[in-house]
Amino acid sequence: MSQRAFLAVAALVVVAGFLVSRVLTNQYYYFAAYVILQYVVLATAWNILGGYTGYVNFGTPAFFALGAYTSVVLIKMMNAPLGLQLVGGAAVAGLLGLGIGYLTLRLRGVFFSIATLALAVVLQTLFVNWEYTGGARGLSLIRPATAPLFGHYVQFLFEVMLILALFAVGVAAWIEHSWIGRGLAAIRDNEEAAECMGVPTLRLKLVATTVSGALMGLAGAPFPYFVTFVEPGSVFDLNYAVNSLAMPMIGGSTTWVGPIIGAVLLGTAQQVATVTISSALNLLIVGVILVAFVILAPEGIVGLIQRLARRREGDVRLAHGKAT
Amino acid sequence: MTSGAFLDVQQVTKRFGGFQALSAVSLSIRQGERFGLIGPNGSGKTTLINCISGTLRADGGRIVFAGQDVTTLPAHRRTRLGIARSFQIPKPFVSMTVLDNLLIPLEYSGHERTDGAVEHAMSILTLVGLAPKARVRSGALTQIEMRKLELARAMAAGPKLLVSDEAMAGLSASEVDDILAILFELNQRGITIIMIEHIMRAVMRFSERIAVLDAGEKIAEGQPDAILADPRVERAYLGE
Hints:
Chain A is an all-alpha fold.
């Protein structure tokens, strides 16, 4: 897809989202859509490091929570507007990402993954003990009741998250098709060979971890206003780690389309399960689907489609060969 | 470059924990030279070229390339200066096609970021005989094809010095000749080549000078005939 086509589609989606928010009045749909879009951002962000670069990050909750808590601090300190919360959350989580990037100098494979998981645990402990943001009890926040043009604030937040999702996908698509993406793919395939072929591996990995972290923080920044109550248990939820990893794997981790497909599919399934059965089933659903995909279609839905298309193309060519 | 050394390895030392992999190894290689590096397994050949290419950093000593001290430069910077290498165990970018494997160094080594990259890559593939495989995923290549891809990819980095790390191990006699022909051709084009090899027939034929490593020390250096006749070399390979 060309850049112009992407922007056109993005603008269309934003307008459609706005129009829908004028018509649809049932609040639940906005909550559900917000959560799914939030997963589009998280899965896309995860994929920049995990899918493109090959570094599996279990620390999504750390970045997400850091984004959320940055907003909490900004709200408490100066009642900052949402725009500032977004910028702040992305910046702080991006800095953490940069730090994680330096870890890749010494840690690869599962050791890197374990370190990111540990990071989430350490950070959670920190916030549990930080009274200013409510400690373990958590903190209630009052969000503006309405937003201009949108009426109810949740509708507004839904539109904001829609824009963030498009932004994240745009960033991922740009990286994928630029010289950065090609370098990251070389790192994923063989880091030593990449370095010896002139790829500045450390610098590119730092770009990947920083951008990935910043986007995760961006997803977390509006969260305090969304739920109006923030406590460590909910923002450091293991669900974020599992989902943001499973969604790209199921959708397909080598293209920007994959995480969207995975997030919409899994996110919707979880929302449906939450309403009809119980939210306790969410992780189980993810687990079962992930296992199925790892066994049956390790390259995800996108990979599966590509494989089928190639086979079809081969058949067509074969038929042609016979005909002539 | 003047008559001085093109690659000057001065007293390079490398330790892994308590193991002394290289002790004060010095080499001086002229521009355009075909240089052979031999020695028994574990003698430090690959460690030495890792220090030269930058995958490892030397603990002591200096490495000067084309008049510039590169001792502390990261590997990708050295590649851009003109030091390229192939790996003993092929390390292709497996998710990419053969052609894309070459486009990485073409794009990143700073020599070419233009539309001509694909043609340049194809001309290199033609040279090594991989042109028909350009669109094949590199993970699906055979052993010899992977060795050729290693050389082709190193070529794409636009090297002035090419380090070929056992490009022929495990190949048949005719395949060895294939690779040798490619290396001679590259040398004809003005590229200085360091060849690390166990296949004596190939090293002896190819090299103008040879250095012998044993247990991390350089025990001999000279022309192929002199090396073959050197009793220290025989001792290193065959024991007392």
